[in-house]
Amino acid sequence: MTIELASAENAENPGSTGSAEGTTGASAAGEGSAALDLLAQQVRDLVDAVVLTGAPQDEIVEITAELAVLTDRLRALRRTSRHPLAFDPEGVPRHAGNAVTGSANPYALPLVSQVTPDRTIRAELSFRQVHEGPPTSVHGGVSAMILDHVLGQAVAVAGGAGMTGTLTLRYVRRVPYGEPLVATAEYVRSEGRKSWAEGRIALPDGTPLVEATGLFITPRVWKEEMTGAQ
Ligand SMILES: CCCCC/C=C\C/C=C\C/C=C\C/C=C\CCCC(=O)SCCNC(=O)CCNC(=O)[C@H](O)C(C)(C)COP(=O)(O)OP(=O)(O)OC[C@H]1O[C@@H](n2cnc3c(N)ncnc32)[C@H](O)[C@@H]1OP(=O)(O)O
What we know:
Elements: E1 2-3, H1 8-12, H2 33-52, H3 57-75, E2 85-87, E3 93-94, E4 113-115, E5 121-125, H4 140-157, E6 163-171, E7 181-191, E8 194-202, E9 208-217, H5 220-229
Antiparallel strand pairs: 1-2, 2-3, 4-5, 5-7, 6-9, 7-8, 8-9
Bound molecules: ligand 3IX.
Keywords: Apoptosis, Cell membrane, Cell projection, Cytoplasm, Fatty acid metabolism, Hydrolase, Lipid metabolism, Membrane, Transit peptide
InterPro entries: HotDog_dom_sf, THEM4/THEM5_acyl-CoA_thioest, Thioestr_dom
GO molecular function: hydrolase activity
């Protein structure tokens, strides 16, 4: 199933070129998405290189000017639509522009998760220095973002897809970057439009680093739209 989510900004101001979604240029959705994924990965590599660079000042100035040219080329060809929201056969929402999982979003890790036979969400991941908060450790907000997402996926595969109402975290041990880690999440229960899930980021041997519980609420408007679509 694929859903095109309408852009409220574009609906209100269809001629605007000021929104992050953009309103001019060719649509990239569905055409050359493999190329777009490669571009996004190149930008991730660029960000890592910027964080780690020891280049002298004049070299940095020159590279910045070259990058500005490329940024302008891309900006001149903005998409007219959002990336479509699709659901895989397991019921996990997939969206190439998502901030956590989006293959076409350089900001995304990107996290690749699976649904296990017992309906647990499981993702192997490795943070990078770009995610640093305290020295040598991953920023707690970055861990929270990953956990928000896998808990959201756990309730989604259980049929309770929703917006995060609350997310409670316990930071047990520092989270290292540059090492293999595992994020897991399970659906716990539902009451009406509310669903709860729990999860964790752990070392491969299961040692927990961050634990999370979350409440997800299916917005009234989603329920109405989904009921209306049947
Ligand atoms: C068209 C179809 C679209 C289908 C889309 C399908 C899937 C979407 C895709 C992905 C989702 C799935 C997986 C993705 C993975 C990751 C998830 C990341 C999610 C986020 O990154 S998300 C961003 C942060 N999140 C927000 O931005 C929320 C802002 N907020 C709101 O959008 C509304 O506020 C909302 C929707 C929460 C409720 O609005 P509403 O109008 O539907 O419901 P209402 O207010 O009536 O509340 C009903 C009952 O929930 C209680 N309640 C309300 N809010 C609460 C809260 N915060 N804490 C505790 N309880 C709360 C009330 O007290 C009442 O409780 P009671 O029934 O007991 O009285």
